Amino acid sequence: MRFVDEYRNSELGKRLVDRIHRRSKKPVRLMEFCGGHTVTIFRHGIRQLLPSTIEMLSGPGCPICVTANADLDKAIALALLPDVIIATFGDMLKVPGSYSSLQGVRAEGGDVRIVYSALDAIRIAQRNPDKSVVMLGIGFETTAPTIAASVLEASREGVSNYCVLSMHKMCPPVIKALLDSGEVRLDGLVCPGHVSAVIGSRPYDFLPRDYGIACVVSGFEPLDVLQCVDMLVAQIERGEPAVEIAYRRGVKPEGNERALETMWTVFEYCEARWRGIGAVPESGLRLREEYRSFDAEVAFEIELPPPREPEGCLCGDILRGVKTPLDCKLFRRVCNPEHPVGPCMVSSEGSCSAYYLYGENNGNG
Amino acid sequence: MCLAIPALVMSVDGLSAEVEFGEVSRQISIWLTPDVKPGEYVLLHTGYSINIIDEDEAKETLKLLEEVASGLDG
Ligand code: SF4
């Protein structure tokens, strides 16, 4: 396929790896923020290809993994209401909340439907005028504009039984929160490719300026990631951290202005709860006043018991980059993709699932 | 979950478009890239095009990578 196979050429990959070995002198810690990058790195064994000077950490860039149980519980509670249909992307189904999962309530008769797109959820609403369809708004800046567009489309088509439970999360604010916590020290960041297709590369400008961190936006094919690491190493060795784009075919410095405009028409910033990280100001999105009628938080009032975390699960620490799945006593023995204890094992982009599928030796921790 | 794949736009009708990727064709919303034209590639994410792929930049990147491969980069 075009724009895919070209970036998987193994001869080019070897040359890039050679160059990284030649260039990398200082010991550095790089974090790949995005779970999609974690998958590319593990699937292609990129960690082992890199010189011992480079340590790679996986970041919290998996929207399902970072959804706090308190929010998940709300979605699960909505699914139990009569006359409510929950529409969700498939990965959410198995994630264990405090007391159950969407899959669990579906088995008990809750109407939970997997959709490929928010547009499908609007169609479900049109076909079921006597029910309320709640689309679970999960995802980063990549996904939020699509959910925003669905609200505008529902509004235009007069679909009044469609609403959104917004649990969207924003990447730059949480990167800042992680750094400010002082728990992780980084020299470079592999910036998320499709988040940046929307927001551009400028929102990372504070990282080299205020934290001295090198930033390169990467695509998702193996050559993209190697090129990104090569550029990060070059910046760090020169001692000139900056923001660059390795994924120029998909990302412009200014992002996609129409997508941003759509997102900000419907949403505004709010505080969001992140698993393992806690509440981060202005790191989430809620529906604006004008679109209240599409806000599931307004449409349904739900009392919930306090959330609880699965015992022994280290997802929170793993998401902060301070532990790896190998530190978890449940890893493999109790927790696996068939019977996941925490979200990092459920999502194919979670660290625990990547370690499980591609071998723990893949890690360099 | 931020997965987006390159898809070729076959035809455009208002704010929706027919795209192809691999052997699959699909109706998508181009609400977020209303200026896209048939023959262009988009990054497709959950039924929406989130950006138009820049072919010139794609070629430029490959050229750079090939320079690394042929040792022209020094
Ligand atoms: S292996 Fe399972 S229990 Fe352990 S941190 Fe990962 S998801 Fe949680």
Describe this entry's structure for a reader.
- The complex is a heterodimer of chains A (365) and B (74).
- Chain A is an alpha/beta fold and 365 residues long.
- Chain A has 2 domains: 1-310, Rossmann fold (3-Layer(aba) Sandwich), CATH 3.40.50.11740; 315-362, no CATH class.
- Chain A has helices spanning 10-23, 35-43, 46-49, 63-66, 69-79, 102-107, 118-127, 144-156, 171-181, 193-199, 206-211, 222-238, 257-266, 296-299, 315-319, 343-346, 351-358, and strands at 28-34, 54-61, 84-88, 111-114, 132-137, 162-166, 188-191, 214-217, 243-245, 267-274, 278-287.
- In chain A, helix 1 packs parallel to helix 12 (222-238), helix 2 runs parallel beside helix 17 (351-358) and helix 8 crosses helix 13 (257-266).
- Chain A starts with 9 loop residues before the first helix and ends in a 7-residue tail after the last helix.
- The model of chain A has no long low-confidence stretch (mean pLDDT 94).
- Chain B has one helix spanning 55-69; strands at residues 5-13, 16-21, 24-29, 41-45, 48-52.
- In chain B, strands 3-2-1-4-5 form a 5-stranded antiparallel β-sheet, with no helix packed on it.
- Chain B has one domain (5-73): SH3 type barrels, CATH 2.30.30.
- Chain B has 74 residues and is an alpha+beta fold.
- At the A-B interface, helix 1, helix 7, helix 8, helix 10 and helix 12 of A face strand 1, strand 4, strand 5 and helix 1 of B.
- The complex binds iron/sulfur cluster (SF4).
- Iron/sulfur cluster (SF4) binds at residues 313-315, 318, 325, 328, 330-331, 335, 340-342, 344-345, 352 of chain A.
- Residues 313-315, 318, 325, 328, 330-331, 335, 340-342, 344-345, 352 of chain A line the site of iron/sulfur cluster.
